[in-house]
């Protein structure tokens, strides 16, 4: 029996690949810019020790820093995205490593600035701010620096930390290469009896299969493969956590979580409130699990049964072109100007569409200030993949609008608000499909899919957030984490979140080993808070129309010109209260009731 294989990159049509030439037309031009940055590094020496001389010197230094930031962003993004096309390409591995090393040098070159600013008499800095019109651009950036005074070290210490930064990236880099370039899964038998290579890209597709033996085979095969290196995965993740704890202590924070949240000026109560509020709604999650078990007519519900649609008769095979069309229709409430930019992205090769050998798994949106956003996909002709397009283009349009409204200094929005635009797009497309669908079975399928978004984004990501909080606390208390300890913590959390109506297969305890976001610690909670804010925005736009849309588009155009909590509050969503999360979970509760009605 012939086995289907992943295509090589050169076998895919050029029109399905992103056009990175919009950043650098050739690798030679990349090399030239790399050399330019190396030369620019030395310019910092003329500013060091002289920031207090005059406001013009301070402005010139800031301009130099911003220029360096813009250039290294392009050099690193290009190299990394080239590598992500096929992680096996040694030249792009090398370019990415070099770009990473250069980024560390850039950090080292500018490390004197913040300590020197903080050492400057406050009256002198205020004098500069009052007399210089040009310096007004930097007012918010200066405020953000001054508020972190207790966590900024001396110039020499900052340079040392900047130099250590490359070492701190090692656990994540090792995980990425092992996970994307080296890890290979055996073939499994698909629904038609054909042997198909299991990949991270098609895993969820198999987990949604109506045939239980296919789901079980994919689940067991994936985790058996990860299990062979379980101690290696534990060592890399433990090292990553130790790195987080080291940097937090070095910067005088009480904990790694506090250090991470402070970057966005998010109070710890937001993180804790999310976990507490989700725990309040765990009975609803357990109710959904019981409904799934009943609807699938299973005497035992296993962990490999939680992705399969509850309405197995409904199949939605959606080609890439059909998916784009569905996204455009669903996002009509965002207005003609928004749709025009979205179409531009579809037409001008912002997107790398299909999976190929060696390509980085998953999906993301990235890009540069002077070019445009880019999206990496691994499209699979499924409903999930259609929503992934809506999601990632939400990120891209957020980036596009911020880049076209804000100066480079404030164009990059904080991670805390990063998931709002992407999730709102998914919510609007879903609401459109629910309104347009008349067939009861298809409607039940969509409601189930929406419930899965809540399960995957609020409940699952909050469970991840709780895992990160628990594991970091162990290291902060002087402990070390082994594969067994990681697995025990992870298994207990699954038991709490999924309840007693599911069989906790032993393999699920190892899921922590394959989650890339754990190498970007305390990120995942923002999916849950972002989802909650997005549901609030979506409901407001559909209900109020233009007034709500105007506030939302202003939010998308704000970049990091204010703190993320403030940007959301100005747009009408206050994340310092549990209300947005509670309201989102009340929608989850409503959807369970709706699905129950459709299934009876």
TrEMBL record:
Residue ranges of domain Peptidase M3A/M3B catalytic in the record: 206-584
Function: Has oligopeptidase activity and degrades a variety of small bioactive peptides.
GO molecular function, one term: metal ion binding
Cofactor: Zn(2+)
Domain of life: Bacteria
UniProt entry tagged with the keyword Magnesium: no
Full protein name: Oligopeptidase F
Top EC class of this enzyme: hydrolase
GO BP terms in the entry: peptide metabolic process; proteolysis
InterPro entries assigned to the protein according to its UniProt record, in alphabetical order: OligopepF_N_dom, OligoPept_F_C, Pept_M3A_M3B, Pept_M3A_M3B_dom, Peptidase_M3B
Location of the Oligopeptidase F N-terminal domain: 116-185
Pfam families (UniProt xref): Peptidase_M3 (PF01432), Peptidase_M3_N (PF08439)
Free-text cofactor note: Binds 1 zinc ion.
Residues making up the signal peptide according to the UniProt record: none
Keywords attached to this entry: Hydrolase, Metal-binding, Metalloprotease, Protease, Zinc
Enzyme Commission code: 3.4.24.-
């Amino acid at each position: 029996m012939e086995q289907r294989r992943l295509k090589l990159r050169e076998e895919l049509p050029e029109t399905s690949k992103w056009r990175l030439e919009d950043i650098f037309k050739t690798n030679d031009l990349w090399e030239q810019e790399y050399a330019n940055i190396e030369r620019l590094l030395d310019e910092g020496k003329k500013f060091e020790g002289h920031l207090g001389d005059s406001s013009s010197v301070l402005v010139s230094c800031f301009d130099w820093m911003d220029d360096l930031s813009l250039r290294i962003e392009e050099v690193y993004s290009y190299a990394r995205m080239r590598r992500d096309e096929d992680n096996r390409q040694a030249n792009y591995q090398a370019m990415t490593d070099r770009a990473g090393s250069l980024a560390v040098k850039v950090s080292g070159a500018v490390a004197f600035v913040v300590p020197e600013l903080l050492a400057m008499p406050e009256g002198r800095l205020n004098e500069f701010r009052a007399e210089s019109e040009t310096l007004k651009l930097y007012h918010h950036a200066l405020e953000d620096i001054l508020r972190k005074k207790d966590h900024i070290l001396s110039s020499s210490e900052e340079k040392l930390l900047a130099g250590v930064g490359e070492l701190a990236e090692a656990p994540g880099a090792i995980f990425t290469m092992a996970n994307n370039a080296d890890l290979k899964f055996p073939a499994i038998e698909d629904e038609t009896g054909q042997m198909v290579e299991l990949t991270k890209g098609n895993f969820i597709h198999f987990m949604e299969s109506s045939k239980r033996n296919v789901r079980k085979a994919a689940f067991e095969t994936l985790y058996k493969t990860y299990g062979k290196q379980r101690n290696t995965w534990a060592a890399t993740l433990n090292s990553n956590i130790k790195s987080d704890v080291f940097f937090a202590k070095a910067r005088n924070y009480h904990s790694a979580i506090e250090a991470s949240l402070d970057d966005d000026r998010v109070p710890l109560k937001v993180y804790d409130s999310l976990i507490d509020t989700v725990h309040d709604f765990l009975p609803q999650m357990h109710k959904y699990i019981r409904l799934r078990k009943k609807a699938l007519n299973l005497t035992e519900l296993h962990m490999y049964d939680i992705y399969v649609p509850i309405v197995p008769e409904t199949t939605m095979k959606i080609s890439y072109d059909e998916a784009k069309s569905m996204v455009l229709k669903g996002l009509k409430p965002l207005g003609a100007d928004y749709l025009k930019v979205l179409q531009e992205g579809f037409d001008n090769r912002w997107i790398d569409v299909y999976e190929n050998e060696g390509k980085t798994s998953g999906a993301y949106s990235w890009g540069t200030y002077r070019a445009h956003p880019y999206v990496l996909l691994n499209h699979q002709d499924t409903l999930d993949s259609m929503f992934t397009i809506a999601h990632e283009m939400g990120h891209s349009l957020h980036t596009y609008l911020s880049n076209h409204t804000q100066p480079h200094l404030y164009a990059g929005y904080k991670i805390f608000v990063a998931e709002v635009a992407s999730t709102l797009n998914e919510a609007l497309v879903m609401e459109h499909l629910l309104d347009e669908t008349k067939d009861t079975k298809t409607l039940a399928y969509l409601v189930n899919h929406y419930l899965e978004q809540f399960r995957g984004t609020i409940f699952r990501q909050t469970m991840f957030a709780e895992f990160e909080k628990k594991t970091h606390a162990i290291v902060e208390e002087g402990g070390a984490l082994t594969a067994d300890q990681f697995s025990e913590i992870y298994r207990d959390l699954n038991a709490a979140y999924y309840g007693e109506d599911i069989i906790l297969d032993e393999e699920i305890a190892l899921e922590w080993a394959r989650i890339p976001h754990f190498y970007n610690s305390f990120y995942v909670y923002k999916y849950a808070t972002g989802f909650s804010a997005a549901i609030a925005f979506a409901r407001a736009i559909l209900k109020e129309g233009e007034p709500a849309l105007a506030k939302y588009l202003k939010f998308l155009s704000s970049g990091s010109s204010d703190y993320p909590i403030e940007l959301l509050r100005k747009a009408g969503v206050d994340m310092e209260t549990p209300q947005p999360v509670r309201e989102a979970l009340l929608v989850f509760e409503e959807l369970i009731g709706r699905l129950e009605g459709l299934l009876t």
